[in-house]
Amino acid sequence: MYYRRSGTVLVNAAAAPDNKRQLCELVDAGVVPGLIGYVDGSPAGWISLGPRKDYAKLQRSPIMKPVDDKDVWSVVCTFVAKCYRGQGVQHRLLQAAIRYARAQGVRTLEAYPVDKAERSHNEFMFFGARSLYERAGFTEVVRRSPTRVVMRRELGPVSAPR
């Protein structure tokens, strides 16, 4: 919910119930705020994506502000539970997000990964690493920080079944 709001947003345990309520309201209104990945029936990870215009916090961000006027969807969060890390879950979540966005008619998907040589602390990797997106066909569009980039992938139309 953090990126869906503008201004000062609390990120702590006290804000969790309100965030959960607002997320449930979105889902009840028919918004799909992201995808959940499962391993053997247990939730293993999450990827949040949607129309860039739905993420108010991105508009004023010095790093993630719009590159141009193109209508894009944004990937703003990806998370894999610790016990499932190193098993390719994050890559499968991103592939599912690409398929989902394409099925929604999205032509361009945008992400804001971390790009640095040394490993970051897991708590700072909710945008994912550059290599995750490169492996999925994203390319750098702009760099506004030494350690952060804006990357995009053109999706093209949904192909009809043969």
Account of the protein in words:
With 162 residues, the chain is an alpha+beta fold. The protein has one domain: Aminopeptidase, CATH 3.40.630. It is 24% helix and 26% strand. The protein contains 4 helices and 6 strands; from the N terminus they run αββαβαβαββ. Strands 1-2-3-4-6-5 form a 6-stranded mixed β-sheet. The longest helix has 15 residues. The protein is globular. It starts with 15 loop residues before the first helix and ends in an 8-residue tail after the last strand.
State the share of residues found in helices, binned by percent: 10-25%
Look at the structure and name the CATH superfamily: Gcn5-related N-acetyltransferase (GNAT)
User: Given the structure, what is the number of helices?
Assistant: 4
Note the main sheet: 6 strands, mixed
For the record, give the distance between the C-alpha atoms at the N and C termini, rounded to a whole number.
39 Å
The secondary-structure class comes to alpha+beta
Which features characterize this protein?
single chain; 162 residues; alpha+beta; six-stranded mixed β-sheet
Summary?
The chain is of the alpha+beta class and 162 residues long. Helix content is 24%, strand content 26%. The chain has a single domain, classed as Aminopeptidase, CATH 3.40.630.
Topology:
Elements (H helix, E strand, L loop, with lengths): L15 H13 L5 E6 L2 E10 L4 H5 L12 E8 L8 H15 L4 E4 L18 H6 L3 E7 L2 E7 L8
Parallel strand pairs: 3-4
Antiparallel strand pairs: 1-2, 2-3, 4-6, 5-6
